[in-house]
Design a protein that fits this description.
489 residues, Aminopeptidase, Alpha-Beta Plaits, 2 domains, 5-stranded mixed β-sheet, 12 helices, 29% helix, elongated
């Protein structure tokens, strides 16, 4: 099989493998945030000399749009310090899609373009945290020169420039740069990653979006990837639930690219770079040097410090016979003030406040967790007693047996890939136990009872986001992170 399946040929000075005979050295290319791979995949690559050459080589592929920002005097003031704000738009235009790609995506060519996704990306002044704030496409907002309409009207009537003006007027947050990924770009990026893992609480089959997925985890690409992020009919909260799907997808792409090493192979990397640079449009003020400087600050961005939020919503309503989303004005004003002043992120770590750091929120109920209990002591009946106590707290008990050794002093809660959230619940129920990752485990949590075991305590599971309004529109702006995996139960 060819080692260069994409047919890409670089001149010797740009060849990531170096001259013939030089051993290849793997490089660490950082995290990709789905459509924000438009920013971070390019920027992070710039953290190495080879990365600089890659992006310089492909920089000419990027389409730059002139004149997106209006009169500087009429725009909001710049953000605090070195913080930056990007506006990311996912467009549904089919321009550039091949007949084969349209067939795979189970769609046909449609003229025009609309904004399916609008996300404000706020990067902290230290460039060590990022907030991805989603706006419902049906948000009922004031559009300059048009009046009150759905947010996606701004893009369909005035393109990127009017969308930027609308978001700046709504938020009073200055947009520093614009990024756009279309239908074709999204499709090709997912294909370049060989699909993305998503999770559904129950099976979904809905004809308008074309989604047809079982409950639980699925690897999606092509038509099902698009259906997953675009479905809103058949969901209780419509556009709000679709935003949560899109946020899940962004986080899943990040975890896939970092955990599976999808971009560490030069052939995959070069293919992905070509897909990205062929697929995006940016403002003409986003230069190669901007990307390079940003990369040097973003290369170590932790997925747990990449937060997803939705603009606070008041309720779903009707305006002019159409369904719209009304925003929560007081909560929205408070949130945007924090973004402008770069105070939207809670200080991390005990050193920030001088107080011990809070324990992580528990999100998986005991009744959803299967636990094997092994006796790691020389005392007969320890495992059986621990299993009985766990069962009383509604954990599902599997095997009860002896461990490999009888000399464990401390109780261990062992967990496999994607099971950290469940393991945290178990560890919280057993005082003094320690979490131990074990790649060999599947979906079952294993408790090795040590000599320190004394009791199993009740645990408090974080409540679901608060809702209000006749259709249950979310009133909560509580963030999730790119490290959260809804399949980890």
């Amino acid at each position: 099989m060819s080692s260069n399946p994409h047919g890409l040929v670089l001149p010797p000075e740009l060849n990531p493998r170096g001259p013939i005979g030089r051993p290849h050295r793997a490089r660490r290319f950082a995290r990709i945030l789905s459509w924000t791979a438009v920013v971070t995949s390019l920027c992070v690559l710039l953290a190495s000399t080879a990365g600089f050459l890659f992006v310089r080589y492909y920089d000419g592929n990027i389409t730059r749009i002139p004149g997106l920002f209006g009169n500087d005097q009429a725009r909001p003031a710049a953000g605090a310090g070195r913080s930056q704000n990007f506006l990311l738009v996912g467009s549904d235009t089919r321009e550039g899609a091949s007949p084969e790609e349209l067939r795979k995506a189970a769609t046909t060519f449609e003229p025009g373009r609309r904004s399916d996704t609008v996300i404000l990306i706020h990067l902290s002044a230290k460039q060590d945290k990022a907030l991805l704030l989603s706006f419902p496409r049906d948000a009922y907002v004031g559009i300059p020169g048009v009046g009150k309409r759905k947010l996606n009207t701004a893009f369909s009537q005035g393109g990127p420039a009017l969308t930027i003006s609308t978001i700046e007027q709504l938020t009073q947050v200055r947009i520093d740069h614009y990024l756009e990924v279309n239908f074709t770009g999204f499709f090709r990026m997912v294909e370049a990653l060989d699909g993305v893992d998503v999770c559904l609480p129950k099976a979904q089959k809905e004809p308008l979006s074309g989604i047809n997925l079982p409950a639980g985890r699925s690897r999606v690409q092509g038509a099902q990837a698009l259906a997953f992020v675009r479905q809103r009919h058949g969901l209780p909260r419509g556009d709000i639930d679709r935003i949560e799907r899109q946020q899940q997808f962004l986080g899943a792409m990040l975890r896939r690219s970092t955990n599976k090493g999808m971009l560490l192979r030069p052939d995959r990397l070069l293919g992905f770079l070509k897909v990205v640079t062929d697929s995006i449009q940016v403002d003409d003020q986003l230069s190669f040097d901007d990307l390079k400087n940003l990369a040097l600050r973003l290369k170590d961005l932790d997925p747990q410090k990449v937060q997803f939020m939705t603009v606070p919503v008041d309720k779903l309503a009707k305006r002019g016979g159409a369904s719209v989303v009304l925003l929560d004005e007081p909560a929205m004003t408070e949130l945007f003030t924090k973004i402008r002043t770069d105070t939207v992120f809670p200080e991390a770590g005990p050193e920030a406040s001088g107080k011990p750091s809070a324990a992580p929120l528990l999100t998986v109920a005991p009744s959803r967790i299967r636990v094997d209990v092994l006796n790691g002591t020389g005392t007969k009946g320890f495992a059986r007693d621990a299993a009985d106590m766990l069962r009383e707290q509604r954990f599902v008990i599997g095997e009860v047996a002896n461990a490999d050794l009888s000399t464990y002093d401390a109780t261990e809660v062992r967990y496999g890939p994607d099971r950290l959230d469940s393991a945290r619940t178990v560890a919280a129920a057993i005082p003094g136990s320690k979490l131990v990752p074990d790649p060999s485990l599947g979906r079952t949590i294993v408790v090795v009872v040590g000599a320190d075991f004394t009791e199993v305590k009740p645990v408090r599971i974080a409540p679901a986001p608060a809702t209000r309004g006749p259709a249950g529109a979310s009133a909560s702006a509580a963030p999730k992170t790119a490290a959260d995996d809804p399949c980890a139960v």
